[in-house]
Amino acid sequence: VTRARRIEHEFIEFIPDELAPNTLYISMAYATAIHLCVCGCGHRVVTPFSPTDWRLIFDGDTVSLDPSVGNWSFPCRSHYVLKRNQVVWADDWSPKMIAAGRARDRHAKAKYLGADMGKPATVPVQPGVRRRIPLWWLPRWLRRSER
Ligand SMILES: [Zn+2]
Questions:
Q1: Rounded distance from Cα 38 to ligand 1 centre (Å)
Q2: What is the CA(42)–ligand 1 centre distance, in A?
Q3: What is the pLDDT of residues 51-67, one digit of tens each?
Q4: Residue 10: is it exposed, middle or buried by C-beta count within 10 angstroms (0-12/13-18/19+)?
Q5: Residues whose CB is under 5 A from ligand 1 (ion)?
Q6: Are residues 9 and 63 in contact, defined by beta-carbon separation less than 8 angstroms?
Q7: CA distances from residue 94 to 40, 91, 144 in whole angstroms, order as listed
Q8: Does position 109 have pLDDT exceeding 90, yes or no?
């Protein structure tokens, strides 16, 4: 098991059952991406796109994800940045830094949604704005859909 230094990307509509290693699968329909942790541990990493989650940057050739991916809930605790299809390994964060980061995320999300995070279904939808539900809000049985 080796740490990847580069990933490929693939635009897809639905998440495939089998994920190839070192590949970022991007679904614009679901505004999310998924990949196997690039440390090689095999854990699935879901990165929904939203103003308070991740931003996908596609320059026509390569993709970047902003901000970094911190897999703190996995045993490997990998932390890396995907930049122009390169894997830039970052430092391990202390539990204190992780807690601060999570609190920041929660705050940003609550501010953005203006709603109780426990009830995503009640988020008001502005006319003309199509809200996409991040994949990780869906129950597992719904994630593999429409086949
Ligand atoms: Zn890992």
A1: 6
A2: 6
A3: 999 999 999 999 999 99
A4: middle
A5: 37, 39, 41, 76, 78
A6: yes
A7: 22, 9, 34
A8: no
